[in-house]
Amino acid sequence: MNAIKVGNHLIGKDYPPFIVAEMSGNHNQSLDKALEIVEEAAKAGAHAIKIQTYTADTMTLNLDNEEFTINNNSSIWNKKRLYELYQEAHTPWEWHEPIFKRCKALGILAFSSPFDSSAVDFLETLDVPCYKIASFECTDLPLIRRVAQTKKPMIISTGMCSVGEIEEAVMVARNAGCKDIILLKCTSTYPASPVHTNIRTIPHMEELFQCQIGLSDHTMGTGVAVASVALGAVVIEKHLTISRAEGGVDAIFSMEPNELSSLVKETKSAWESLGDVTYGPTSSEKDSLSFRRSLYVVEDMKEGEVFTEKNLKAIRPGYGLPPRYYDVLLGKQIKQDIKRGTPVTWALL
Fold first, then answer.
1. Are the C-beta atoms of 21 and 50 separated by less than 8 Å?
2. Are strands 18-22 and 9-11 parallel, antiparallel or unpaired?
3. Count of other CB atoms within 10 angstroms of residue 345
């Protein structure tokens, strides 16, 4: 499967995992805080910052009805009205340009999740390098079609989606002109439990949809993300906050900068460790062959004596014959005097 180019980055299995720091609403309605998050993401080694482009009015209606209020005791947003939540979490559109400029100055990419066509139109004026479809919007086919028409790479989060829904989203995107699609395995709970993450789905998704696959990870820590790289994930997206203690709509399941730095390092190490299918000593191991056991003379011997269990041993280092010849050599006669500590070779017989 060919690598996908996003900005100056190539995304695929032949390249280190592409790490995306999701800002979401962790700016707590402060542009200074948003720019600080960008700086911390760059310092930690993330390849991109992702924000979200919507207003409360493009997301929902300003109603008090029960269906417009979150009623889920396990949700961190329980009892919040949708309109109020999106007012609190949205990134003002006038902030996008300064955020993107700061990203460019620091050498990391910036892109966004649009939530309606007006957001796509706006992001096109900022020349974003790619688009992200949020997991709750994966079934919004008109939105996917509009994004695909830009011909830019599309990252689609698949939380809660059935195989049929993912297939439909991919088909609509491809038919509308998007050639480069990355699907993200995602569990749409906040925070998510590793038990419910099911990352064995990643290679299955790759085979089924013939797309590059990544992970949108809402679990705590780095373990799930690192494991996903071993299963073929080429993109890792994690929420980033300056400090969970400061609070905010997403802070409770977001990484802090030092954790993001660890994620960048550990996922790269996981990718580097994959290598190729190989047996036998690698080039880096050849010097260690001398530390294997081999056959040595462990007592002084005279010409004509035979090898016995007392004078022949398998010991370190590895300059003699391999231990597999031990039984073959027992009882064999030597043709010269041999000092204790001599490696056994066929020339001694």
1. yes
2. unpaired
3. 11
- Over range 297-303, report the average pLDDT: 97
pTM: 0.90
282 vs 213, more confident: 213
Q: Is residue 244 helix, strand or coil?
A: helix
pLDDT at 297: 98
What does the alpha-carbon distance between residue 9 and residue 48 come to, in Å, rounded to a whole number?
10
Tokens of 176: 């509308």
What is the predicted pLDDT for the residue at 188?
87
Handedness of CA 270, 275, 278, 284 (dihedral sign): negative
Contact status, residue 173 vs residue 144, Cβ threshold 8 Å: yes
What tokens appear for 332 in the block?
A: 């064999």
**Contact (CB, 8 A) for 29 and 88:** yes
Instruction: Quote the CA–CA distance of 177 and 186 in Å, as a whole number.
Output: 25
Contact 83, 109 (CB under 8 A): no
CATH architecture group of domain 12-54+90-274:
Alpha-Beta Barrel (3.20)
Give the per-residue pLDDT at 1.
85
What are the domain boundaries of the chain? 12-54+90-274, 286-348
Picking from 184, 188, 276, the residue whose alpha carbon sits closest to that of residue 233 is 184
Going by DSSP bridges, is the β-strand pair 9-11/4-6 parallel, antiparallel, or unpaired? antiparallel
**Bridge partners of residue 214, in order along the sequence:** 184
Class at the top of the CATH hierarchy for domain 286-348: alpha beta
DSSP state of 316: S
Structure tokens at 256: 């802090």
C-alpha torsion sign, points 219, 221, 227, 228: positive
- Predicted confidence (pLDDT) per residue in 117-158, tens digit: 999 999 999 999 999 999 999 999 999 999 999 999 999 999
Is residue 186 classed as helix, strand or coil in its secondary structure?
strand
Residue 190 banded pLDDT, cuts 50, 70, 90: confident
